[in-house]
Amino acid sequence: xxxxxxxxxxxxxxxxxxxxxxxxxxxxxxxxxxxxxxxxxxxxxxxxxxxxxxxxxxxxxxxxxxxxxxxxxxxxxxxxxxxxxxxxxxxxxxxxxxxxxxxxxxxxxxxxxxxxxxxxxxxxxxxxxxxxxxxxxxxxxxxxx
Length: 145
Fold this sequence. Notes:
Blueprint: E1 4-7, E2 10-13, H1 15-21, E3 25-28, H2 29-37, E4 41-51, E5 67-75, E6 78-83, H3 95-104, E7 110-113
Parallel strand pairs: 3-6, 4-7
Antiparallel strand pairs: 1-2, 4-5, 5-6
């Protein structure tokens, strides 16, 4: 498995995240079907957030889109990251497209984790910025008993 990569001429070691998640090896997309036929492939995949190492998908500005999604699958009870034929980890910019890819590979459910982005930081873009103000939001219900 390749752990040392160059991202924007900066040396990056991706091993710490792989170790944290327990990634033990790698597998290519072409290996998935034979592994499934041999009953060596687990029933579910793990989708997780990674620092983007490749430009592509129309999201070439890595400063605006620094993260992408990666997939790990269980092979013989060992968690393996999905790599492409050239030896680099597969990355998806859209979790929706990734979901379609997983279904195409025979996975009907998967775990999703995002250890790189803090919770509750999603920004909502309004067509008309004057459309909604915090004072216009309803008060949350009182849940105390």
